[in-house]
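Possible regression after last week's pipeline update?

I re-ran a chain I had predicted before the update to compare outputs. Posting the input and the new output here so someone can diff against the archived version. Not blocking, just want to make sure nothing changed silently.
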Amino acid sequence: MATFLNTIIDFATTAGIRLLIAAAVVIIGWILVNKLLKLLQKTEKIKKLDVTVVKFLLNFANFALKFFLLIIAASILGVDMSSVVALVAALGVTIGLALQGGLSNIAGGIIILLFKPFKIGDYVDAGGVAGTVTDINMFYTVLRSIDNKTLYVPNSAASNGTITNFSEEQLRRVDLEFSVEYGTNIDGVKALLLDIAKKNKFAIDTPEPTVQVSALTDKEIKILYRVWCDSANYWDTYFSLNEAVKNGFEKFNVHIPYRQVTVHYEKEED
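New output (post-update):
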């Protein structure tokens, strides 16, 4: 009985204390890391950096520091560090083989940060989906679609595929094509469309809007209508121009040719 009690006491005064210290280190360290990262976000130097870079670096630092805390806790518990290093190396190889996609996503995130094909707030088409960039973390680029869906695009797909950044340039051009009947006064149509662009509150004067005959088919004359606007006003310009052209065509009797199908049939005699 005395031997058993001595064993309990010895455990409480050695391993038990180590366990408490390790737990305290993890808990206190976890809290300090969170506070440190919040303080870093508020520093002037960090504020001067691009928000995309800041978020990625903070995510990486959060992971690295908390992983380091766990290593310290293992050391306090008396775990042989050489064994831990060997185990981490073996796990690294195993996890690396199993998570090649995850590692390529991290590499993709670094490529995005270095070459900056887009940043948070840009409207892009990346990895086959389109939306406004809301976050770039270690593994995913997060987009918000125009109908308010959250889209998670793997960084590898975003960095390796074709990226269309609709926000990078200040101006965008709205291209519209209309069809009119043969016999229509083309000069009158051109004047009407240019006047519509001039009166549109989203369209700009420089570069100037243009109206051109783009094709002559067997049924119609195709008119190509190009108007410039600020990138942020693209869709407002697009929709308002379509509506104004429709109303203008009706007001001045400009007719759009309709597809017609003529069906002939013979009535059977009794």
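Follow-up from reviewer: compared with the archived run. DSSP finds nine helices and eight strands in the chain. Marking as no regression found.
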